[in-house]
Amino acid sequence: VQLVESGGGVVQPGGSLRLSCAASGFTFSSYDMNWVRQAPGKGPEWVSGIYTAGSRTYYADSVKGRFTISRDNAKNTLYLQMNSLKPEDTALYYCARSPGGTGWAKDYWGQGTQVTVSS
What we know:
Helix content: under 10%
Structural class: mainly beta
Number of helices: 0
């Protein structure tokens, strides 16, 4: 199992970024997927989740209305479109896999991609 995030960077407040997570080594379309972030000095914060077929999506209140999770099962790729970014969105962003029926438990994580929101 391999999850490789990309797309992070430095952006000004109000800006946008699109994160990607390339999955390999498993049947991507059979797993729910998540984005989780960890800010410096803080614990992990679940950001968003998406069901296998992309039919249902879920968001933390802190990002609802600004972030959009999506997936392309043909490309084995998970995405996170982040708009109206705020300094408090600065964190290392991870994608993580959730086996079905586990209540969003996460069994594999990527290495993360850094997002820094700063003027």
